[in-house]
Amino acid sequence: MIPRAPLLLGLAGTLPFIWGAITTALPDFALASAQMIGPRFVGPYVQLFYGAVILSFMSGVLWGFATKAEANQAATGYALSVLPALWAFFMTGGGPTSAGIYLIAGFAGLLALDFMFSKWGLTPDWWMPLRILLSAIVIISLSTGVVLG
């Protein structure tokens, strides 16, 4: 069972992705929201900026898991842990559609890394159920931005 705090905080962390999908799907709402809070915080723009931040954050999480490993596995874990941040840095500079597609691929790749670290026994037992749930929400939300954006 996923502990309450990580579940609630993880779900809260998906709100910018969901908000971006909603404001992409509802252009009039997006316009009103952009006028109130600024254009960077609506539509695909909030998703892309926040997505790059979250991939970088998750690199740090994986780095933390790598500290539990030893020898070659630790070195491999450290090397793999930087990939999400590098992916976000190098792959999100294009337009909103291509950046959204690359972020979807980045979050799918992150889920594969989560699975690997879990199989190595470096994560808590509840990690994969949480990561599958959050990744599904993020990927669906980003997909909305790509298709409608």
Characterization of this structure:
Helix 4 packs antiparallel against helix 8. 81% of the residues lie in helices and 0% in strands. The chain is elongated. The protein is mostly helical. 32% of the residues are buried. The protein has one domain (4-148). The chain crosses the membrane at residues 44-63, 75-93, 129-148. InterPro entries: DUF3429 (IPR021836).
SSE map:
Layout lengths: L3 H9 L2 H11 L1 H11 L5 H24 L4 H11 L1 H9 L4 H24 L7 H22 L1
Helix pairs in contact: 2-3, 2-4, 2-8, 4-5, 4-6, 4-7, 4-8, 6-7, 7-8
Output the structural class: mainly alpha
Q: How many domains, as an integer?
A: 1
Put simply, the count of helices is 8
Binned, the helix content reads over 70%
Gross morphology is elongated
Mean pLDDT: 96
Number of strands: 0
Radius of gyration: 16 Å
Order of helices and strands: HHHHHHHH
Query: Can you tell me the residue ranges where pLDDT is under 50 for at least 5 consecutive residues?
Result: none
Residues in β-strands, percent = under 5%
N- and C-termini, Cα separation: 36 Å
Largest sheet: none
